[in-house]
Design goal:
- The chain is α/β, with parallel strands linked by helices.
- Strands 7, 8, 9, 12, 13, 14, 15, 16 and 17 form a nine-stranded mixed β-sheet that branches. A six-stranded parallel β-sheet has the order 3-2-1-4-5-6. Strands 10-11 form a two-stranded antiparallel sheet.
- The protein folds into two domains: 17-187, NAD(P)-binding Rossmann-like Domain (Rossmann fold), CATH 3.40.50; 192-366, Dihydrodipicolinate Reductase, domain 2, CATH 3.30.360.
- The longest helix has 19 residues, at 243-261.
- It has helices at 26-41, 61-71, 77-83, 97-108, 129-138, 165-178, 194-205, 236-240, 243-261, 270-283, 292-295, 381-390, 435-448; strands at residues 17-21, 50-55, 87-91, 118-122, 153-157, 184-186, 218-226, 284-285, 296-299, 304-306, 309-311, 329-336, 346-351, 358-365, 400-406, 410-418, 426-434.
- Bound molecules: NADP nicotinamide-adenine-dinucleotide phosphate.
- NADP nicotinamide-adenine-dinucleotide phosphate binds at residues 21-28, 54-57, 93-95, 123-126, 128, 158-160.
């Protein structure tokens, strides 16, 4: 997570030198360069910004620029063309400490030299993170330059951050050998989504929800990440050593959950926000080991159909071991042992090759203490009370707040309204906020005044 942005070494603008280790990789082509091109088009980063790509394959800077440009969508090329003259390639191996001296010389020769901020992005295999950091440290590339406030040094570490607790600790230890904590950015792309960032804004900018955002009023919280995709594009080999829990649950889903459940931060200072999120994670209690079977599910998809198209089972996918035990579906019922959430079940669910792709958080509120409406004619009062207790009456639904993260981006609140007619029957209704239509409409209104004010 972010180090303190208000630290004295924080940059006033964007980084001036960015080194991407893993220059020819998938992440660089599909995400990093398009993101940079988009920033450049919006006028950031500022002048003096240079990118150096590093990978083992020999090629010239010009060849790398051409490759990157080719991989971009036509509408991304305008930003890239502004950046291109400042894009360089240096072939080398991050495991080779002598190469880091070459890199150091290259960076010293770029605008700003040693007196400018440097960001090292580790877009390489996780096994190389430790060696890359160590060799950068050995070459003196990670030292903040004393007295030169803008000459900061930072590192971005891609996921996965270790395979388990032991390896994550080892990696942390290796990084801390050469870096201060505030220099390390462990990236989680999920946190960049508007809808995820909005959770913080929505909860703490609007006063009306806070009084009901607790165990007194909330009955259940469900976080679901459902994917239609399986192991397309040769992902099987990577995924089989990872699985649903490591790939999605322990990182992205817990980040989302911590935003949903955290206390209000005293400020938006990154350390303060992180502290409050960590407090949620510390209070999160997974099921005890003797309850594991009751409260968790691990499963693998079998052959079937998604969207009417036949798809293979997980073990038939390319790169997956025939006897693989890796889960492609995981569900956990956990609890948060603190004053706000004690006793509220927290359901986390994620799977691949499910019927529909969606990511959402559903906060389900408690039912009214007395149910006055919608008793089926044939039921006695006793039967009605029993049906309410076991939740078998679908015409009586709790209020829910759904925060849709993708592909739908929005928020909806469900409630009951009186159905028109002589009988006092309540029917379900919703208030919907949709990111796209709301903000597209506002943008159109600003430029052409085409929409009426809402
Ligand atoms: N792709 C994604 O969508 C995605 C999403 C989330 C996280 N990540 C993470 O991002 C990182 C990169 O993933 P990727 O999919 O881009 O991997 P990738 O396509 O396999 O690319 C790896 C890059 O590293 C370079 N490389 C390999 N060994 C090297 C060495 N010893 N020294 C210098 N460069 C070396 C490779 O080029 P050479 O062979 O020429 O050296 C290549 O440019 C991984 O940690 C991955 O877990 C990826």
């Amino acid at each position: 997570m972010n180090p303190n942005p208000s630290s004295p070494d924080a940059p006033a603008g964007a980084p001036q030198q960015l080194v991407i280790f893993g220059a020819s990789g998938d992440l660089t082509q599909r995400k990093l360069i398009p993101a940079l091109a988009a920033l450049i088009e919006k006028g950031r980063p500022r002048e003096g910004f240079n990118v150096v790509g590093v990978a083992r394959r020999e090629k010239t800077s010009e060849a790398w620029r051409n490759e990157l440009r080719e991989a971009l969508e036509p509408d991304q090329r305008k930003g890239f063309d502004l950046l291109a003259p400042h894009v360089h390639y240096l072939p080398g191996d991050v495991g080779d400490s002598a190469f880091m001296d070459q890199l150091s010389q290259k960076l010293d020769g770029l605008p700003g030299g040693r007196e400018t901020g440097r960001l090292f992005y580790l877009s390489i295999k996780p096994e190389l993170f430790g060696a890359a950091a160590k060799n950068l440290g050995k070459a003196g590339l990670l030292q903040h330059r004393e007295g030169a406030k803008r000459a900061w040094r930072r590192i971005i570490v891609e996921k996965p951050f270790g395979h388990d607790l032991r390896t994550a600790r080892t990696l942390n230890h290796d990084l801390h050998e050469v870096l201060l904590e505030e220099q390390i950015f462990r990236i989680d792309h999920y946190l960049g989504k508007e809808t995820v960032q909005n959770i913080l804004g929505f909860r703490f900018h609007n006063a009306i929800f806070e009084p009901v955002w607790n165990r007194e009023h909330v009955e259940l919280i469900q976080v679901t990440v459902a994917e239609e995709l399986g192991m397309e594009n040769g992902r099987g080999g990577y995924y089989d050593g990872t699985g649903a829990l490591r790939d999605m649950v322990q990182n992205h889903m817990l980040q989302v959950l911590s935003l949903i459940c955290m206390e209000a931060p005293a400020s938006l200072d990154a350390d303060v926000v992180r502290g409050n999120k960590v407090a949620v994670l510390k209070a999160l209690r997974p099921p005890d080991s003797d309850e594991m079977e009751k409260y968790t599910v691990r499963a693998q998809y079998a052959a079937g159909k998604v969207g009417g198209k036949k798809v293979p089972g997980y073990k038939e996918e390319e790169g997956v071991a025939k006897d693989s035990n890796t889960e492609t579906f995981a569900a956990i019922r956990a609890s948060i042992d603190n004053w706000r959430w004690a006793g509220v079940p927290i359901m986390l669910r994620h799977g691949k090759r499910l019927q529909k792709r969606f990511t959402e958080v559903v906060v389900q509120f408690r039912m009214p203490p007395q149910q006055l409406f919608n008793k089926p004619d044939k039921m006695t009062d006793e039967e009605f009370r029993r049906a309410l207790r076991d939740g078998s009456l679908c015409q009586i639904r709790p209020n829910t707040m759904t925060l849709s993260i993708q592909p739908k981006e929005g928020i909806s609140l469900s409630f009951g309204v009186k159905q028109p007619g002589t009988a006092m029957v309540m029917a379900p209704a919703r208030w919907d906020f949709d990111y796209k239509s709301t903000f597209e409409c506002r943008a159109r209104r600003r430029t052409s005044g085409c929409c009426t004010t809402r």
